[in-house]
Amino acid sequence: MKIKVGFLWHNVSSGNLGVGALSISNMYLVKKCLDELNLDYEFITIGDNEVTDKDNIKLVEDQIDVKFSHYSFSVKELIKKPKKMISYHKLIRSLDLVFDVGAGDSFSDIYGFKRFFVQIFTKIHAVSFAKKTILSPQTIGPFYTKKAEFIAKYILKKADYVFARDQLSYNEGCRIVNIDNFILSTDVALIMPFEKNKSINSEYINIGINISGLLWSGGYHGLNDFGLNHSYKEHVKCVIDKFLDIDNTRIYLVSHVIATIKAAEIEDDYLAANEIKNKYYSSDDRVILIDKFTNPIIAKSFISGMDFFTGARMHATIGAFSSNVPVVPYAYSRKFAGLYNTIGYDVVLDAKQLNLNDSVDYVFQNFEKRDELAKKILESKVKLNELSSKYTNSIKAILNSYEY
């Protein structure tokens, strides 16, 4: 008998490669657990209809050796079209297990109540009607309104298992509710497979910079929505200029979120990087605009060839960290410090605290210590593996105890 497994808010072809990385990695880990227990299975990812490349699903199937189908939906569609809601409801009811990753960091009202509503709609449905719902490692909170906190409390109490991907999220969950089967783990994308990039010319100091299109735009409303203590645009320009002052450097502008529809262009990293290249460095061949990536494993494999990396998309920095590249994450929210401090890597640039000069200095102080950062990464992986094992061991316990 096949175990039917649904992966909610997973899309390997999302324009946000972080969502794609979570989707790939969670399937990879669950498959590994099922294989160890000699259990047969059917995988279905459930998420939006974004497509970075029409051949990407086949590519991912080859990359992690798993077959799966994708069910696309939108909450707006579920609300407006009863037939679609019935179809979605039947799917969720048919699944033996539902793993909900919450797009990583969307179980919070930090991005506004509209985005939070999209998450809680499907979470409430899953904990109410699915046979077993597991909230895979994700950020929990912060919750800025009592309404959001009340709803989150209900979901956490109703879920069969809840995994926080960092200590701050675990503390937040414990603050608002007392539940069994609430476990501290870590971000599943930290274990995503990759191929080491050996094509980069090692004669140079190769520096990767990920520029967030969302921060470049000032947030969704263009008003420094995340409360940074300096101009993000000035920070990026100063960092690039200062790297160019160092002999023998090559700067690679690496995008990790691309818009698959026009409405999402405000978030597009490639558009921001392209603007920077054309506006300031069009004649400087030391600043290299990297083509759009449509697959998270390919993106991580490219990043693995860098000598140093900094970026504002957390999963771009996770790609660097987990491929042993010295990295300075540029943090615009607590999720960065939460994740990295939990695994013992304390090198995080707090953009809400540091002024422009201090933020730039922080990057270069750590660039000079990049050999030390590389050692820190290796040391942190002991804790990372311990926390990752808590998730996989729990999955195996769930599989062993569940009657299908």
Overall 3D geometry? globular
- What is the CATH class of the largest domain? Alpha Beta
- Domain tally: 2
Spatial strand sequence of the major β-sheet: 3-2-1-4-5-6-7
Question: Helical percent range?
Answer: 40-55%
The helix-strand sequence is EHEHEHHEHEHEHEEHHEHEHEHEHEHH
Distance between the termini: 8 Å
Could you say what the CATH architecture of the largest domain is?
A: 3-Layer(aba) Sandwich
**Low-pLDDT sequence parts:** none
Residue-averaged pLDDT, rounded? Answer: 96
Radius of gyration: 21 Å
Helices and strands: which structural class?
alpha/beta
Number of strands: 13
Taking the sheet with the most strands, its summary is: 7 strands, parallel
Q: What does this molecule look like?
A:
The protein contains 15 helices and 13 strands. The protein folds into two domains: 3-191 and 383-401, 3-Layer(aba) Sandwich (Rossmann fold), CATH 3.40.50; 205-368, Glycogen Phosphorylase B (Rossmann fold, 3-Layer(aba) Sandwich). With 404 residues, it is an alpha/beta fold. The chain is globular. α1 (17-36) packs across α15, α5 packs parallel to α6 (146-158) and α9 runs parallel beside α14.
